[in-house]
Design brief:
single chain, about 400 residues, alpha/beta, Rossmann fold, 8-stranded mixed sheet, 6-stranded parallel sheet, 15 helices, about 20% strand
């Protein structure tokens, strides 16, 4: 029996990119009778139906049949949760569960400082590298030495794209033990129903005779929504710019777009309605601008629905690994809103090009970014780690 402990920041019902990858890893291994899994993470206020979590509580529950230890938090510093119980609970699970393999989702610097002294020589260590610390530059410098220790101690480093390995000043130094496992799209989560078909038809009727450009994501700086709003100013009224999601920049984005009737803010979108907007749109806009966007699950989802994508060039990011310029969409110079508007115009003026890019995008996702491929890659990684321990 191989015991695997995963360490993400949070877990479902809290929804985020890292949390979804951790859940996908667990799902990939759940059918293997030779593997036993646990997770430990911080708790966070979140709810999905009857599943309710409260930030300050330290509790044990299960997600998809895997035990999750959630440690109550009392504060956040630089987006990192602080907990009085985490150290105790991690020591306890290390002693009682005695994991053979630990998967740490990076960045998670405060947890890393607790974990490193607890790692023994026999424990295999996988560092799942989601992104470099770029926003909190002081934090990045403070934990520079610790990050190098993590990388040296790791048996494998997993990046979500070859672009990130080449573009990261850390991963470039450890290419010999770095591998690529792209994030995945789960078709069952994107299943089209009668409701989504009718909702998509309703959206198309509402914006009849317009080119529908759809974007969705948190309204935070690295998502680049302000550049999409700016791009709209270069477009005529034959366009509808629909922006889903919310965040710290929502009000400033609305203020920036207040005189532009083409731009509409949709707020948070339910999973069912999200599928409808993917179906209804003509172009999927993904205007992220920094390496904080390491891959782009929403980008891959838009492409899965056969929509041409418009992105910015982000050196070292997987965004330009997912969307291929001139094949599945158009890539624009980073932050150039006029170029972005021109790309939207080009696609709007050429239904044939939209169809070609859309078909190529769907094929690219099916061949590279579906859950079946992800599951196969995860199981191979674990098999290789176990085999090297014999």
């Amino acid at each position: 029996m191989t015991r695997i402990l995963q360490i993400p920041n949070y877990q479902y019902p809290h929804i985020g990119g890292i949390e979804q990858v951790a859940r996908d890893i667990a799902d990939s291994l759940i059918g293997n009778s030779d593997i036993q899994q646990k997770m430990i993470c911080f708790n966070e206020d979140a709810q999905d139906g009857d599943c309710v979590c409260r930030r300050r509580e330290t509790v044990r529950d299960t997600v998809d049949g895997v035990e999750v230890i959630r440690c109550g938090c009392f504060a956040k510093v630089a987006s990192q949760s602080l907990s009085f119980t985490y150290h105790r609970e991690l020591k306890k699970v290390m002693k009682e569960f005695q994991p053979d393999i630990i998967i740490l989702h990076y960045p998670n610097p405060f947890v890393s400082s607790i974990l490193l002294p607890l790692l023994n020589k026999k424990t295999k260590f996988i560092l799942w590298w989601h992104l470099d610390i770029t926003k909190q530059k002081v934090l990045g410098k403070l934990f520079h030495g610790q990050t190098l220790k993590l990388l040296r101690r790791s048996n494998r480093i997993v990046a979500t794209s070859p672009n990130y390995i080449d573009g990261s000043p850390y991963l470039r130094r450890f290419k010999d033990k770095s591998i690529v496992i792209p994030n995945c799209v789960r078709p069952e989560r994107l299943a089209v129903s009668d409701y989504t078909k009718e909702k998509a038809a309703e959206i198309r009727r509402k914006y009849a005779e317009k080119t529908i450009c759809f974007a969705v994501g948190r309204h935070v700086p690295y998502k680049g929504m302000t550049y999409l709003v700016k791009a709209s100013k270069y477009l005529d009224d034959s366009f509808a710019i629909l922006i889903g999601g919310k965040g710290e920049l929502t009000e400033s984005l609305k203020e920036e777009a207040k005189d532009d009737k083409k731009v509409e803010f949709l707020g948070r979108i339910s999973d069912k309605d999200l599928i409808a907007y993917y179906l209804a749109c003509d172009i999927f806009a993904f205007p992220s601008i920094t390496k904080n966007e390491a891959f782009g699950i929403a980008l891959a989802e838009g492409m899965y629905f056969g929509k041409p994508a418009v992105t910015f060039t982000i050196n070292g990011s997987g965004v330009n690994y997912v969307n291929l310029d001139g094949a599945t969409g158009i890539e624009c110079p980073n932050g150039d809103s006029r170029a972005y508007a021109n790309a939207l115009k080009k696609l709007a003026d050429s239904p044939g090009l939209r169809e070609e890019y859309g078909k190529n995008g769907r094929r690219r996702v099916e061949e590279n970014f579906l859950f079946d491929s992800f599951r196969e890659n995860v199981n191979k990684l674990i098999s290789d780690i176990v085999a090297n321990d014999q």
